[in-house]
Amino acid sequence: MKNPIKRIKTLIQRIIQLFSSNSQQLATPTSRPSSVPIPTVSPRWEASGLVLVCSQCGKEQPASSHRTSRSSTASEDLQNWLKTRLKFEGLWGEFRVVSTSCLGVCPKARVVVVLDSNAGGGKSQCLIVNPQSDRELLYSYIKHKK
User: Fold this and answer.
1) How far apart are the first and last CA of the chain?
2) What is the C-alpha R_g of the chain?
3) Which end of the chain is more exposed for a tag (fewer CB within 10 A), N or C?
């Protein structure tokens, strides 16, 4: 074999050229003309609301603070509790509880929860809650949004 490094180098250059030409073709939008709108849907929870629970807040809490198991954080526990409670009360279709990344508030030993609602003028509330002791109060805020 004469100069295998040179052959490998040539092969790598060909592969790079192939991928760069494919990525340029993918960058041009040819699948949908600009005059065709993006499809939309009307979800069931649109009338009552969406509950956003910051998933990063629970990670900031001390290891001993409010954890029910080693694998779940305080925000995950709060989110699961809210889902269970809404299902039990028959409100799960009207409200959705969704985990979100950092909301930029970052309170210590608390979790940020945003209640977004189209009802009542569509005003959102950003709440800073204790994931254990404020659960019932938070739930009453959610029910009040209905």
Assistant:
1) 76
2) 24
3) N
> What tokens does 115 get?
């209640």
Give the type of residue at 137: L
Per the listing, tokens 């005059």 go with 35
* Cα gap 110→103, rounded to integer Å: 13
CA distance 75 to 99: 8
For the full predicted model, state whether its pTM sits above 0.85.
no
CA 99/CA 52 separation, integer angstroms: 6
pLDDT tens-digit profile of 98-133? Answer: 999 988 888 888 999 998 876 555 678 899 999 999
Q: Is 49 exposed, middle or buried (0-12, 13-18, 19+ CB in 10 A)?
A: buried
Asked whether 16 and 85 are in contact (CB, 8 A), the reply is no
